[in-house]
């Protein structure tokens, strides 16, 4: 399509530059008083050139729009594919608001630019070179005037752009800030209203908006003279050509034939000079938008070419020597860029079919620990193994197939209950398997009450579900996957004691052969665990069964005693 655009634009330039030649011939015949049929014939040829040029311009614009749209579809697809393969460690390098801007606003800038640039970038040099070639065969005075006008125009535009480019480059970062404020406002609306924080959020949003507005106005004020300057220069050049032409014609007084030729040449030269300046104006329009597009291009490149922090191994799930076994060997971890260790020398293991519980004070590293199993991050030192193999040796898909991960904050997608339960690799599961997962997650009472059962709609983010229902839906999703290892990252916190007990009993009964790793805050949730890991400030301060820890771990004993009343109720 680009090759077709080049051919069409070349033909269009040829036709546009043929029209002044017909004008010259018509002017000469009018002055000479020759037969009108010659003038009519030239007029018909001019009209034919004009309509053919119009048709080529329409075809070029259509093809350019298709090229720009196809390119931007590819850019969006490659960004989405790149981000889909990132770990949480990679996502921490980019804000969500920035990623949204890069895949929408930045891509839109490139699409708008490309649709015009394909036409202008190809047309401007062809038109300028061809027109200049035509001009150089005319009087030297006219050529000098045109060259002077071009130099003045190019120098002026260069000075304007040198001042405006820094403001244009900053534009997208201010757009990121506005998008970030908008996202926080929408996601935190309930909390903002509950704490009467509207005024604070409004001030914060206005500050970001004012920064964007100020930068945009500065860029517009600096760059706005470019188009008027080019238009005015075209008028001044036409005036100068006529002024020089008048002098040349006057100098040829007494030679009517030469004066007629000079007059017709002046008409033609004016058209060619206008075409040259038109090419410069096209180039100036492209150059004015180019800095913004270059910034957008670099931002998109950063996403597409970002090398994932976690490399992909080659092992498959079938290569696991002991499916379901999880082991930590002297593992330490620091979040990238912080330099502060969150985990220090953690070591423990859990065999297939066992239940391992992790408990400890807030910010003791519980969620970080299970994130290393799912390989959302890589350990800074030490080794995490699943099925007897280092998690770094598995491919991402194969490791994910072995782990049913239920995060601390339930994630619910818009769609139906069935689509949320039978998600991703479980999409081919039937009704029986889906309902089994729903029953184990203690969600069957809700599904049975819904008008369409599993085919009932779930709103975006699950706004039509309670916190406990969303957590149970996340658990049902993991159960439907039927992996050898389950990770529950504090997923029972929104459940009442009775539902908690029934759910854990169902999990123990229906998934007896699977390994279960449970992060919990309540001692009652982990009483029946085969092993309990007690964390404090990233270190293992207790490891064993409940009875052993009650005797030998002071921190665990304090936690149990602080929940003694609930603990007695559970028993």
Topology readout:
Blueprint: H1 2-32, H2 36-84, H3 88-91, H4 96-103, H5 105-135, H6 140-187, H7 189-194, H8 198-223, H9 226-251, H10 256-304, E1 326-334, E2 341-350, E3 355-359, H11 366-373, E4 381-386, E5 389-390, H12 396-402, E6 403-406, E7 415-416, H13 417-421, H14 431-440, H15 444-449, E8 457-458, H16 467-481, E9 485-489, H17 497-510, E10 515-519, E11 531-536, E12 539-544, H18 546-552, H19 554-562, H20 564-570
Parallel strand pairs: 3-10, 3-11, 6-9, 9-10
Antiparallel strand pairs: 1-2, 1-4, 4-5, 7-8, 11-12
Instruction: State the shape.
Output: elongated
The strand line-up of the biggest sheet is 6-9-10-3-11-12
**Range of strand content:** 5-15%
Alpha-beta content class: alpha/beta
Give the end-to-end Cα distance, rounded to a whole number of Å. Answer: 74 Å
How does the major sheet shape up? 6 strands, mixed
> For this entry, what is the oligomeric state of its chains?
single chain
- Estimated radius of gyration: 36 Å
Which spans have pLDDT < 50 for at least 5 consecutive residues?
Answer: 566-571
Work out the helix count.
20
Percent in helix: 55-70%
Q: Would you tell me the overall average pLDDT? A: 82
Question: How many beta-strand segments?
Answer: 12
What features would you describe in this structure?
With about 575 residues, the chain is an alpha/beta fold. The protein is built from 20 helices and twelve strands. The chain has helices spanning about 1-30, 35-85, 90, 95-105, 105-135, 140-185, 190-195, 200-225, 225-250, 255-305, 365-375, 395-400, 415-420, 430-440, 445-450, 465-480, 495-510, 545-550, 555-560, 565-570; strands spanning about 325-335, 340-350, 355-360, 380-385, 390, 405, 415, 455-460, 485-490, 515-520, 530-535, 540-545. The strands form three sheets. Strands 6-9-10-3-11-12 form a six-stranded mixed sheet, sandwiched between helices. A four-stranded antiparallel sheet has the order 2-1-4-5, with helices on one face. It is elongated, with a radius of gyration of 36 Å. The model is unreliable at about 565-570 (pLDDT under 50).
């Amino acid at each position: 399509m680009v090759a077709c655009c080049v051919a069409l634009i070349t033909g269009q330039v040829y036709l546009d530059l043929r029209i002044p030649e017909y004008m010259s011939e018509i002017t000469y015949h009018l002055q000479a008083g020759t037969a009108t049929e010659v003038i009519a014939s030239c007029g018909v040829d001019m009209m034919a050139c004009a309509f053919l040029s119009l048709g080529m311009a329409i075809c070029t614009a259509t093809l350019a729009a298709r090229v720009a749209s196809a390119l931007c579809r590819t850019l969006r697809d490659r960004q989405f594919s790149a981000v889909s393969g990132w770990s949480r460690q990679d996502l921490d390098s980019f804000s969500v608001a920035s990623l949204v801007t890069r895949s929408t606003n930045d891509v839109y800038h490139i699409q708008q630019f490309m649709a015009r640039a394909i036409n202008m970038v190809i047309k401007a040099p062809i038109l300028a070179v061809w027109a200049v070639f035509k001009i150089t065969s005319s009087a030297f005075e006219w050529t000098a005037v045109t060259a002077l006008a071009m130099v003045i125009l190019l120098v002026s535009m260069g000075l304007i752009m040198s001042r405006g480019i820094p403001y244009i480059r900053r534009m997208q970062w201010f757009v990121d800030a506005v998008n970030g404020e908008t996202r926080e406002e929408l996601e935190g609306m309930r909390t903002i209203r509950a704490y009467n924080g509207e005024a604070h959020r409004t001030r914060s949003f206005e500050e970001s908006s004012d920064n964007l507005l100020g930068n945009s106005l500065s860029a517009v004020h600096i760059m706005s003279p470019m188009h008027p300057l080019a238009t005015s220069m075209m008028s001044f050049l036409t005036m100068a050509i006529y002024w020089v032409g008048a002098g040349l014609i006057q100098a040829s007084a007494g030679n009517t034939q030469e004066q007629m030729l000079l007059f017709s040449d002046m008409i033609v030269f004016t058209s060619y000079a206008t075409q040259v300046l038109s090419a410069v104006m096209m180039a100036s329009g492209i150059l004015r938008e180019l800095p913004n597009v270059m910034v957008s291009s670099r931002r998109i490149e950063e996403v597409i070419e970002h090398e994932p922090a976690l490399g992909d191994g080659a092992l498959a799930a079938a290569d696991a020597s002991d499916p379901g076994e999880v082991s930590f060997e002297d593992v330490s971890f620091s979040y990238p860029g912080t330099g502060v260790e969150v985990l220090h020398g953690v070591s423990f293991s859990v065999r297939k079919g066992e239940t391992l519980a992790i408990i400890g004070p807030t910010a003791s590293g519980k969620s970080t620990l299970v994130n290393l199993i799912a390989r959302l991050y890589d350990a800074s030192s030490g080794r995490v193994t699943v099925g007897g193999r280092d998690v770094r040796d598995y491919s991402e898909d194969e490791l994910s197939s072995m782990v049913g991960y239920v995060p601390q904050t339930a994630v619910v997608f818009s769609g139906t209950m069935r689509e949320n339960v039978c998600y991703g690799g479980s999409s081919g599961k039937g009704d029986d398997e889906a309902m089994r997962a729903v029953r184990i997650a203690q969600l069957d009472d809700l599904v049975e009450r819904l008008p369409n059962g599993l085919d009932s709609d779930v709103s975006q983010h699950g706004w039509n579900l309670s916190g406990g229902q969303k957590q149970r839906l996340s658990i049902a999703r993991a159960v439907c996957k039927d992996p050898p290892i389950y990770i529950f990252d504090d997923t029972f916190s929104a459940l009442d004691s009775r539902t908690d007990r029934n759910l854990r009993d169902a999990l123990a009964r229906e998934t007896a052969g699977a390994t279960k790793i449970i992060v919990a805050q309540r001692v009652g949730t982990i009483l029946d665990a085969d092993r309990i890991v007690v964390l404090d400030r990233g270190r293992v301060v207790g490891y064993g069964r409940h009875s052993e820890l009650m005797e030998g771990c002071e921190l665990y004993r304090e936690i149990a005693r602080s929940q003694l009343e609930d603990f007695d109720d559970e028993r």
